[in-house]
């Protein structure tokens, strides 16, 4: 009986391989950065990490983490409400709340947990969640864990959102939920119009700022800053695993009572370990770093603009994007794989995405810019794109 189970798993894996859906992991032999060493000793330019601000290997964050280890030890061995809360956790929560202009925030082991634990404690069967169709998997899973009625609208389509809001008028509370920046296209949620519709149809708003915090808006405060709508969003979730140092950790911000309710009822918070002190200490250092100058964010904006201009001038088709994510369209899945492989031969590391990660016949190369990229890095990447693009007849 058990043998048939293991045969079944083996067959499923083989099917993934046959369909080209099997994911191989590439080994990185250096710290994360604009240039990384692969396991074969080759240095390549990295255009596929979420290290938007170039802080993943920043000396001040490393120093703060080391100090956190020295003063607070290695692990907490507890959930927050038993004996897993230190001054570092509370300070970090205050800094996160201040960064987003919210009353309070709550830490999780990851944003996957923040999103997994946000809906169920706040909403019940009388309520509605109205979710963008391209929202992150963790939002989809989080919504599944709560009893609220589910509505879905076409990504960033405000006509469809309005239709869903009308359909959900019978429900007690309505929560619109959206990614701030969508990771496969790089487009922003149209927050200005979402806020108007939320007012018109009496709905709450939640934004997941994972790809937008630290990136979008003049000082990197996310899409609420970009649209000049700070304080107009009820709940913001985000990660410490991308622009904010890139280690691990997630959070939810909002009104004090909402955060308090999550501390009482959110299952990934109640039943999962507290963040290691070193991570919390480095998180605090990150927000201290961002309080003053925001040169890194400005550099990222400059780099993104520069890359896009060069690519468009070279004849590539880029999805419209106001984030640090650029989708270079090649449409054909095989072509996307080939393109990425040839780029890597030229020491440029970017990833080809195809169905089912993106819609059928919408294959692309995704490039993510970083504040750590120099002009030379970007020039080299664009030259590689042009050479491969010409070789494959894309441009
Ligand atoms: C990366 C990401 C997450 C998950 O964040 P982790 O902290 O890595 O769990 C959630 N939502 C969005 C939109 C993301 O891009």
What is this structure's SSE topology?
Elements: H1 2-18, E1 35-37, E2 43-46, H2 59-72, H3 80-83, H4 87-100, E3 104-108, H5 111-116, E4 128-132, H6 137-144, E5 149-153, H7 158-167, E6 174-179, H8 191-200, E7 204-208, H9 223-226, E8 235-239, E9 250-254, H10 256-265, H11 267-270, H12 277-291, H13 295-313, E10 325-331, H14 333-345, E11 348-349, E12 351-353, E13 363-368, H15 375-391
Parallel strand pairs: 2-11, 4-5, 4-6, 6-7, 7-8
Antiparallel strand pairs: 1-2, 3-9, 8-9, 10-13, 12-13
This protein binds pyridoxal-5'-phosphate.
Commentary on this structure:
By secondary structure, the protein is an alpha/beta fold. The protein folds into two domains: 18-47 and 294-392, Aspartate Aminotransferase, domain 1 (Alpha-Beta Complex); 59-290, Type I PLP-dependent aspartate aminotransferase-like (Major domain) (Aspartate Aminotransferase, domain 2). It is 42% helix and 15% strand. It is built from 15 helices and 13 strands. The strands form three sheets. The chain has a seven-stranded mixed beta sheet with strand order 3-9-8-7-6-4-5, with helices on both faces. A hairpin with a 5-residue loop joins β1 (35-37) and β2 (43-46). The structure holds pyridoxal-5'-phosphate. Pyridoxal-5'-phosphate (PLP) is lined by residues 110-112, 115, 136, 138, 179, 183, 208, 210-211, 239, 241, 250. Pyridoxal-5'-phosphate binds next to α5.
Average pLDDT for all residues? 96
> Which architecture name of the largest domain does CATH use?
3-Layer(aba) Sandwich
Terminal Cα separation, in Å? 55 Å
Shape: globular
Report the radius of gyration as a whole number of Å: 22 Å
- Note the total helix count: 15
Main pleated-sheet profile: 7 strands, mixed
Whole-number total of structural domains: 2
Q: In the CATH scheme, what's the topology name of the largest domain?
A: Aspartate Aminotransferase, domain 2
> Are any ligands bound, and if so which?
pyridoxal-5'-phosphate
- Share of residues in strands: 15-25%
Helix- and strand-based class? alpha/beta
**Order of strands across the biggest sheet?**
3-9-8-7-6-4-5
Assign the CATH class of the largest domain: Alpha Beta
> What's the CATH H-level homologous superfamily of the largest domain?
Type I PLP-dependent aspartate aminotransferase-like (Major domain)
Extract low-pLDDT stretches: none
């Amino acid at each position: 009986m058990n043998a048939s189970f293991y045969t079944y798993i083996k067959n499923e894996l083989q099917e993934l391989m046959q369909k080209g859906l099997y994911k191989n992991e590439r080994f990185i032999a250096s710290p994360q950065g604009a240039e990384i060493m692969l396991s074969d000793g080759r240095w390549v330019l990295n255009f596929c990490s979420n290290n938007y601000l170039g802080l993943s290997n920043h000396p001040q964050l490393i120093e703060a983490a080391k100090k956190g280890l020295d003063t607070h030890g290695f692990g907490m061995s507890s959930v927050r409400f038993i004996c897993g809360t230190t001054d570092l956790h509370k300070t970090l929560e205050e800094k996160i709340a201040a960064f987003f202009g919210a009353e309070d925030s709550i830490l999780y082991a990851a944003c996957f947990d923040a999103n997994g634990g946000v809906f169920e404690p706040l909403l019940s069967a009388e309520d509605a969640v109205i979710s963008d169709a391209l929202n992150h998997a963790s939002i989809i899973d989080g919504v599944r864990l709560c009893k609220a009625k589910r509505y879905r609208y076409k990504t960033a389509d405000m006509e469809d959102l309005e239709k869903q809001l009308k359909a959900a008028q019978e429900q007690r509370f309505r929560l619109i939920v959206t990614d701030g920046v969508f990771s496969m296209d790089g487009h922003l949620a149209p927050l200005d119009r979402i806020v108007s519709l939320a007012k018109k149809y009496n709905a709450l708003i939640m934004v997941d700022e994972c790809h937008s915090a630290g990136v979008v808006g003049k000082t990197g405060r996310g899409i609420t800053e970009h649209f000049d709508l700070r304080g107009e969003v009820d709940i913001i979730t985000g990660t410490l695993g991308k622009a904010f140092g890139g280690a691990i950790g997630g959070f939810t911000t909002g009104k004090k009572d909402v955060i308090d309710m999550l501390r009482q009822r959110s299952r990934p918070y109640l039943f999962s370990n507290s963040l290691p002190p070193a991570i919390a200490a480095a998180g605090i250092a990150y927000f201290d770093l961002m309080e003053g100058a925001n040169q890194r964010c400005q550099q990222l904006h400059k780099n993104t603009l520069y890359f896009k201009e060069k690519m468009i001038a070279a004849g590539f088709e880029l999805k419209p994007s106001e984030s640090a994510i650029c989708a270079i369209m090649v449409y054909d899945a095989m072509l996307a794989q080939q393109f990425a492989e040839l780029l890597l031969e030229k020491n440029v590391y970017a990833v080809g995405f195809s169905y089912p990660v993106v819609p059928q016949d919408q294959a692309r190369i995704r490039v993510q810019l970083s504040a750590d990229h120099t002009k030379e890095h970007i020039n080299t990447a664009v030259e590689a794109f042009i050479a491969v693009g010409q070789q494959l007849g894309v441009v």
